TrEMBL record:
PROSITE patterns: ULP_PROTEASE. InterPro entries: Papain-like_cys_pep_sf, Peptidase_C48_C. The keyword Hydrolase applies. Residues 50-221 form the Ubiquitin-like protease family profile domain. Keywords: Hydrolase, Protease. Belongs to the peptidase C48 family. The keyword Nuclease does not apply. This is Ubiquitin-like protease family profile domain-containing protein. The lineage of its organism: Eukaryota, Fungi, Dikarya, Basidiomycota, Agaricomycotina.
Length: 268
């Protein structure tokens, strides 16, 4: 019963947050409509199970975290990456690719076991990815990476420009380990030393918005016109998390979207 009790507590916290936003005098009518849709979904969803429509087995209980100021975890980041890939229509024949949060973790493992990387079946997918860059089947890569187990950053590779992009809302320098791992992997397949540069990203002013900011930095890098960078205020960050919750649910096939939300969502 303990997991159910924890999920119920988080769910009730999410509902309280939505009600609090509805009661604010600054809430616009569009935002209020969006909040009412979110409440309807929260009332009808179970507390456990698996979210439909995504590659990973993401727990339904994690949906409630979108409404809190808790740190977004790997499930949330991978969901946003999958949605971004769909938005950009990155199919099998695309020259651009978006990798999950596991990508940087795999690079660290490969760097620590170079001989196994060259022959091991567990690294076959990573070798094929490197070979795709060498053969010019891919020329751009985007990912979101975890730093120190408590911070999300955006990471990009542009093979044509021979540049690696790094987007950190805290404006910190690139960790030496990450730099070494990625430089080594690219050199294995391309024999080129890439230059590192900072990606445009809003400055983070709280301890929990790194996941959303990293997503926007990455999306902006792929298509700056379609994905403008948000103002990183507390209100805007909370609103973007609610929007993302609705997108995740909609992607999973639930038909809960009101007409007003659909029109606003399609226009943005």
């Amino acid at each position: 019963m303990e997991p159910v009790r924890e999920a119920r507590t988080l769910w009730r916290t999410a509902v309280d947050h939505v009600h609090a936003n509805l009661e604010k005098s600054t809430t616009t009518e569009v935002a209020a409509d969006r909040a009412r849709v979110a409440l309807q979904i929260l009332e009808e969803f179970p507390w456990d199970g698996v979210i439909k429509g995504f590659k990973g087995d993401h727990s339904v209980s994690s949906l409630a975290r979108w409404f809190t100021t808790e740190w977004l975890n790997t499930d949330h980041e991978d969901q946003m990456l999958e949605l971004l890939a769909a938005d950009l229509e990155l199919g099998d024949g695309s020259t651009s690719t978006i990798q999950t949060t596991y990508f940087v973790h795999a690079l660290a493992q490969a760097y620590s076991n170079p001989e196994m990387y060259r022959t091991g079946t567990g690294f076959r997918w990573l070798r094929r990815l490197g070979e795709a860059f060498a053969m010019h089947k891919h020329n751009r890569l985007g990912a979101i990476a975890n730093i120190n187990d408590n911070h999300w950053i955006a990471l990009t590779i542009d093979c044509e420009a021979e540049v690696i992009g790094y987007g950190d809302g805290f404006r910190r320098t690139v960790p030496s380990g990450l730099r070494s791992h990625l430089d080594w992997w690219l050199h294995q397949h391309l024999g080129i030393q890439f230059q590192w540069t900072d990606l445009p990203i809003p400055k983070q002013t709280d301890p929990h918005s790194c996941g959303i900011l990293a997503y926007f930095s990455l999306a902006h890098w792929f298509d700056s016109q379609r994905f403008p960078l948000p103002n990183p205020t507390a209100a805007v960050m909370a609103e973007e998390r609610m929007k993302m919750f609705l997108r995740v649910v909609e992607h999973g096939g639930k038909v809960y979207m009101l007409a007003t939300y659909k029109c606003e969502h399609q226009s943005n």
